[in-house]
Automatic annotation (TrEMBL):
Signal peptide as annotated in the record: none
Name of this protein: Reverse transcriptase domain-containing protein
Alphabetized InterPro entries for the sequence: DNA/RNA_pol_sf (IPR043502), Endo/exonu/phosph_ase_sf (IPR036691), Endo/exonuclease/phosphatase (IPR005135), RT_dom (IPR000477)
GO-annotated molecular function: catalytic activity
SUPFAM superfamilies (UniProt xref): DNA/RNA polymerases, DNase I-like
Origin: domain of life: Eukaryota
Family annotation (Pfam families): Exo_endo_phos (PF03372), RVT_1 (PF00078)
Organism: Cyprinus carpio carpio
The Reverse transcriptase domain, residue ranges: 500-771
Length: 1263
């Protein structure tokens, strides 16, 4: 694709403070309009902890030298698409200067941003220039506010020019001696222009400069002072020719347009008009679809252009008028002209505010609603400075590095063009013969019929709804939000387009196009093209079609894909693979067993599969002619362009590979890999590992392949041959140098091992888990590493402006998933010391490294019962293991191997009992299993700990009868196996209508012969001795009941966590009693429960929820509390100075607080037109019986207002004056506007009116 030459626009601006979000938004909107690439900002007034505020969507790299929130501060910001490679940074502790060095397109550059003192200080310039690098070795650009006039005659507009300052003299000498140039003066030797206007002196001066070295000066294309707007300084910019190139603009639909009713109504009409005018049967449905997209694209562009034109027209007029007036003022110094200038600037700022107000309000609303909640907003803060996606340099085929954007893009284009070129030279008959020799399984006829039936409108609608919002669009620019918004109108045409394509065996042209976005793999060389994961950004219309096919295929794929493959197969989980691997590695083996594990590293596995092989495999699995032809249609003529550094390559054709980003690709890849797995299992000379009575040969999770080899020295040659043959037919290529081989015995010939094509290791990294040879090393290689990472994380997060809820959610979002993954995959017994270590890292962070004011248990409570929902890691650990233990329930010795996971077959191989009995019968001492499988032993230790903590009975209705070690007859008498076959599995089956059944009743229900009466007596005796009052059925405890859930049910771990949390809810009666004592009021249990629940519902804002949480849980230090800690502090209220400052007094009884509450309650009485008694329970706890007379919507509004009132009280907590009603009303009005935007974005404006209409009318009337 043709690239356009582009200069680098470097801009310097003294912005005079950026803490205010409105001003900050104006500044960045203006900078973006000026097309600034590298920004030198002075007087940012941003503290280091708030530096993230300067990040916006187009800024990539940021460097700061900060001082305080009211003074100084300089920053250098670099646009995302600029290939700047950072080398070093030098900051001034006083926030005066910042020196950043790096390279741009192999050119070494030094950026110096300075804000000089506003008094005569020549020492500042001498000191600064002493630490600037030698100009001979770099390209130097110095910019900023020098607060110094270099030439008093040319650079100042004043009746009486002053004498040159000492700073000016020193600076001029330094400029001449270092051979650097004031670039604007060089370009404009006789012109006068100014960068600063002083309101005090009514004078203009030029004190903002760019200085450049002699080598860079010829490359400066232009220099310019822009209008003085927003700040009292003008931006100064230079255009530098660094040989940059960029690609033409690619259109993308802006999904925020869909938040506007006017836009949706307008385009619903456009779509209807288009279909009325063009859908007349004279063109194909595919052509009609392409035309619709083209027309809508053009109309959207016109819609946005017209809006921008109208909004920008006046701004442009002002920008034209303003320089004329400023030139007049420079000549005349007329106060009338000055007044006109001020008026235009005010109008410009007002218009600019209106331009950004809609976006700004939505940003504020997101901060209000989502701040500190577990979502992308918080995730961006936790990630810190996001790594730029700019690829700064890449290796050419010659091995040399290039950092030229065009060359980088060409390297990737050539790499992927070669990667996606077919390497196959085999005949299709060879593929067919290979596949047919394997005896591949076939799907059922019913499944085949469903898979190949006509596509329906309901499937189209379901597919559209299934995609998440916020994902990148394909080359056509249409995001999924567009299809969701107009699915009722365009869905039928899309279905017709699909059917027309199927009939013609070809999709519309735009559906074959894709953009390839690149994501650097973890810990990979960023200069190697193969280190990046290619994600195909497909058109959403194509993804909808492939999603329909994927939905169909997922329903039947498990019938043809063996349980060895768990990747992307519904109902299968990665922990099956890891647990199987660990069982094989750690189960006791004979001394002469020769077992080894081989982990393959496939080279670009998804991208290398040959299409001819995929189609042949689909046919041989019997998926049907229609389905096969649809997949063939998908791969008829696709093409792709590579995106790098905002450059997009020319499109190139694809000839192989399953595209990562296509919903169907994972399932097709699983089908493509299955013949390899089958051929391994069928091969007579690749010897399997036999454990638990079954053969273990291969385990797959998508392209992660493990081989379990017995007699590896004999098996490996045949394995190599088979993989080579499979690769020739399918395109599958193994990177042998990165593959890992772990022998589980010590007698392998070292010469043989050294000659193998892969590395021999003592530990494997598999699916994110490190599996060492020795079981005892599991903790060190996984959990200890994770704790060290956690310590590093919380140290990084300390500087973030997070509330307590934000810190809780940081642990939820980042820390919990990492540890939960270990809990689910590593079944080792963790002692209490481990969880204490976790708490020692997490809890200080949660409390902001301040004193803990309430126990951890109250923070870990669910939000539904008044907590903050901090994860209890021990509960998650137990829940993850309970999920695995659920599988033990069905693992009887005679259960068919094919019906349970392979790891479970190994684990059930125990002596003197069965896995179901170990769960629900009397505990067996752990020492009994000393030489047993360590996975089983550790799982039992975990289970026994859970039983002990939650006081679970060892015998219950779920206790099995057969194979029960606690019931010895079942171990020696096979009769009880027949009982199990007849339906008497557990003790609970012995009850009929909740009463222990007689033998006659059991005979009638289960068909037992009379000869089994003695067995009945034996069982009855066992039950009687273990269950008190055994005659009446007692349901199993809730935790036991949870273990009877379906194994494939979603959210199993969460269900267990909820169950465990509910069993250990900390009491809050002491808090209730404290409030009763303070307030002198009895609080009913129902009111207290509602108060705890109301913490979550008092507001959508987590900040307000935290206010309510702290109030209810009495976390604020009262004067009496402070007096008990520090006797020198008076216990009296700081406001009234006459009563003890208890929490109740400070929140309610103080006269200054009483007056405030009176005004708040009166306001509600006026708005709701209903008497509202002044109730401290409503004010402080958010609930009282007096609220029962109000509607649900009214209660919502009341709880909002009470929380805002407490915020006002807390803001004045340590001040003598009390909160003002006006202060509450202003905050209430602000929150109301945030609520309005929230409901509008959610498409529920009527819901907002139901709650807040009376308040809006009252406030507007009051205005």
């Amino acid at each position: 694709m043709t690239s356009l030459k582009k200069h680098l626009n470097i801009l310097s601006w003294n912005v005079r403070g950026l803490n205010d979000i409105v001003k900050r938004s104006k500044v960045f909107a203006h900078l973006n309009c000026l097309h600034a690439d590298i920004l030198f900002l002075q007087e940012t007034h941003i503290k280091h902890s708030c530096a993230h505020r300067l990040r916006c969507r187009w800024i990539g790299q940021m460097y700061h030298s900060t001082f305080s929130s009211k003074a100084r501060g300089v920053s250098i910001l670099i646009r995302k698409n600029i290939p700047f490679n950072h080398l070093s940074t030098k900051q001034d502790i006083n926030g005066r200067y910042l020196i950043v060095t790096g390279t741009i397109l192999e050119k070494h550059v030094t950026f110096v941003n300075l804000y000089a003192p506003n008094f005569d200080d020549p020492h500042f310039f001498r000191s600064l220039f002493n630490i600037i690098p030698e100009v001979d070795s770099t390209h130097l650009i110095i910019g900023g506010d020098f607060n110094c006039i270099l030439d008093p005659f040319m650079d100042r507009h004043s009746p009486s020019p002053p004498k040159p300052s000492n700073s000016a003299t020193v600076l001029n000498n330094l400029i001449h001696s270092l051979n650097i140039f004031d670039i604007w003066r060089l370009h404009h030797p006789t012109d006068k222009d100014y960068s600063f206007f002083s309101n005090v002196h009514n004078s203009y001066t030029r004190i903002d400069y760019f200085l450049t070295d002699f080598k860079l000066t010829p490359k400066i294309l232009s220099s310019k002072y822009h209008n003085i707007l927003i700040s009292d300084h003008s931006p100064v910019s230079i255009a530098v020719d660094f040989g940059m190139e960029t690609s033409p603009y690619s259109w993308r639909f802006n999904p925020t347009l869909l938040n506007e009713d006017h836009f949706k109504e307008t385009f619903a009409t456009h779509i209807a008009e288009f279909l009325t005018l063009n859908d007349k049967g004279d063109v194909s449905d595919s052509t009609l679809w392409e035309a619709l997209k083209a027309v809508i694209r053009g109309q959207v562009i016109s819609f946005q252009a017209e809006r921008k034109r109208q909004r920008g027209k006046r701004l442009s007029e002002i920008e034209t008028e303003l320089p004329v007036l400023e030139d007049q003022f420079k000549l005349t110094s007329s106060n009338l002209t000055l007044a006109s200038i001020m008026k235009l600037k005010y109008e410009y700022n007002t218009l600019l505010s209106e331009q950004i107000s809609s976006l700004l309000l939505k940003i504020k609303q997101k901060q209000f609603e989502l701040s500190d909640k577990p979502n992308r907003l918080l995730a961006r803060q936790l990630r810190g400075i996001q790594a730029s996606r700019a690829i700064k340099s890449i290796k050419l085929k010659s091995g040399t590095l290039t950092n030229k954007p065009t060359e980088i893009n060409n390297v990737f284009r050539e790499f992927y063009q070669e990667l996606y070129s077919s390497q196959s030279s085999v005949d299709s008959l060879d593929i067919t013969n290979f596949l047919r020799s394997l005896g591949l399984p076939k799907i059922s006829e019913d499944a085949k019929e469903n898979l190949n039936s006509d596509i329906t409108l309901e499937e189209v609608s379901t597919a559209i709804r299934s995609f998440p919002n916020g994902k990148a669009a394909g080359p056509d620019g249409f995001c999924i939000e567009f299809y969701k918004a107009f699915s009722n109108q365009i869905g039928p045409l899309m279905l017709r387009m699909f059917k027309n394509s199927i009939e013609n065996k070809k999709l519309p042209e735009t559906l074959y196009s894709a953009n390839i976005a690149l994501i650097l793999k973890k810990d990979k060389d960023s200069t190697d093209p193969s280190s990046y994961r290619p994600i195909s950004l497909l058109g959403n219309d194509l993804k909808i079609f492939t999603k329909i096919l994927a939905n169909r295929l997922s329903k039947c794929i498990s019938s043809i894909i063996h349980e060895d493959q768990t990747g992307f197969i519904p109902g299968r989980f990665s922990f099956h693979n890891v647990r199987r691997l660990m069982n094989i590695v750690y189960k006791s083996k004979g001394k002469h067993d020769k077992i080894a594990i081989l982990a393959l590293d496939a080279y670009k596995a998804f991208d290398s599969v040959e299409w001819s092989y995929i189609i042949s495999t689909i046919e041989e699995f019997g998926l049907g002619q229609n389905f096969s032809s649809w997949v063939e249609m998908l791969y008829l003529c696709p093409s792709a362009s590579v995106l790098t550094n905002n450059n997009r390559s020319c499109p190139f054709p694809l000839h192989r590979g399953t595209r990562q980003g296509c919903p169907l690709s994972p399932l097709l890849f699983a089908i493509a890999m299955e013949p390899l797995a089958i051929s391994i299992r069928n091969h007579p000379h690749i010897f399997p590992v036999t454990m638990g009575g079954i053969k273990h040969q291969i385990s797959l999770y998508a392209d992660d392949v493990l081989f379990f080899l017995s007699e590896p020295e004999r098996s490996l040659p045949f394995l190599f041959d088979l993989i080579r043959k499979f690769g020739t037919l399918s395109g599958y290529t193994v990177n042998w140098q990165k593959s890992e081989f772990m022998p589980l015995y010590d007698t392998m010939d070292p010469v043989y091992a050294n000659n193998l094509p892969f590395r021999t290791v003592s530990e494997l990294k598999y699916l994110g888990i490190t599996v060492p040879r020795h079981f005892k090393s599991l903790y060190e290689t996984n959990y200890k590493v994770m704790i060290d990472n956690l310590k590093s994380d919380v140290e990084t997060w300390r500087v973030l402006p997070l509330t307590m809820i934000g810190r809780v959610n940081a642990i939820k979002m980042v820390t919990l998933p990492r540890f939960l993954y270990l809990f689910q995959n590593i079944p080792i017994f963790l002692t209490q010391l481990f969880f204490k270590t976790l708490d020692s890292v997490i809890m200080p962070f949660i409390w902001g490294y301040k004193a803990h004011r309430i126990s951890k248990a109250h923070i870990c409570k669910s939000k539904d019962v008044g907590g903050l929902g901090l994860p209890c890691f021990q509960h998650y650990y137990w829940a993850a293991n309970l999920r695995a233990l659920m599988y033990w329930r069905s693992a009887y010795p005679e259960t068919l191997n094919s019906t349970i996971p392979a790891w479970l077959v190994i684990e059930r191989d125990i002596q003197d009992s069965s896995l179901p009995a170990l769960l629900f019968a009397e505990n067996i001492p752990i020492r009994t299993f000393k030489k047993c499988n360590p996975i089983v032993v550790n799982s039992l230790k975990i289970w026994y700990k859970i039983r002990k903590v939650f006081k679970l009975p060892q015998t219950c209705s779920l206790t099995p009868i057969a194979y029960n070690h606690a019931f010895p007859p079942s171990q020696i008498d096979k009769t009880f196996l027949s009982w199990r076959e007849n339906g008497i599995v557990s003790i609970g089956d012995l009850y009929i209508n909740n009463v222990f059944a007689s033998f006659a009743q059991l005979r009638q229900k289960f068909g037992l012969p009379p000869s089994h009466f003695f067995r009945y007596l034996q069982v009855r005796s066992y039950v009687k001795s273990n269950l008190p009052n055994f005659e009446t059925y007692k349901p199993p405890e809730h935790l036991y009941y949870c273990m009877t859930s379906e194994l494939n049910m979603k959210g199993l771990v969460s269900n267990f966590v909820e169950c465990l949390n509910d069993s250990r809810v900390p009491p809050t009666q002491h808090l209730k009693m404290s409030w009763e004592k303070d307030l002198g009021i009895d609080i009913s249990e129902d009111s207290w429960t509602e108060a705890l629940r109301g913490i979550k519902s008092c507001s959508i804002s987590s900040n307000f929820q935290l206010i309510q949480y702290k109030a209810v849980h009495r976390l604020h230090y009262s004067r009496t509390k402070l007096h008990s800690i520090y006797p020198s502090v008076s216990p009296l209220c700081i406001k009234c100075k006459s009563n003890e400052g208890t929490l109740a007094h400070l929140f309610w009884f103080c006269p200054k607080i009483c007056k405030f509450w009176s005004e708040v309650f009166c306001f509600y009485s006026k708005v709701l037109k209903k008497d509202f008694p002044h109730d401290p329970l409503v004010a402080i706890l958010g609930w009282a019986p007096s609220l029962e007379t109000f509607s649900f919507n009214q209660i919502q509004s009341i709880q909002y207002g009470m929380t805002i009132a407490k915020k006002a009280i807390l803001l004045m907590w340590n001040k003598e004056s009390g909160p003002k009603f006006e202060m509450w009303l202003a905050e209430f009005s602000r929150v109301l506007h945030m609520e309005k935007i929230r409901y509008e974005i959610a498409g529920k404006p009527n819901k907002f009116l139901q709650i807040w209409k009376s308040f809006m009318e009252f406030l507007e009337g009051d205005d």
